[in-house]
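User: Teach me something about this protein's shape.
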Amino acid sequence: MINYALEKGAEQWFIDAFYYVNKLTYAQYKEYFDILQLEIIEEKKIIRKLDMDFYNRFEDKLWCYPVFDLELDFFHVLLKKKQILQINPEISTEMTNKISMIESQIQEINCLGETVAKLADKISSHKKN
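Assistant: First, the predicted structure itself:
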């Protein structure tokens, strides 16, 4: 692809700049926004129909990219830092205690279920005799 661009008159620095920038898919950009705690406020996508002749020439490299990403010429986003909620330590402790209580109840229910299953087996085997 680089040779093709050079043959068409593009300079190496120009190719290097865009080759580096365009290594991520749109989904990957959105994933990084999320990791960085950035929220998309506005989004504009510029879509360009995929040139199938071009795709066919470079299919060995392009096949792994979703068609949406190949047709996505540019995207512009307005980002803002996500608001991170501060949790009151007292509330956090209360929630932890409630979660522990629920986990204990689940464990008791599981034990009760095992006991019921054993009793059902005994009744079933007793009926057979």
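Now, about its shape. The radius of gyration is 29 Å. The helical segments are 2-7, 12-21, 26-35, 52-57, 59-62, 67-71, 89-128. If you'd like, I can walk through any region in more detail.
User: That's plenty for now, thanks!
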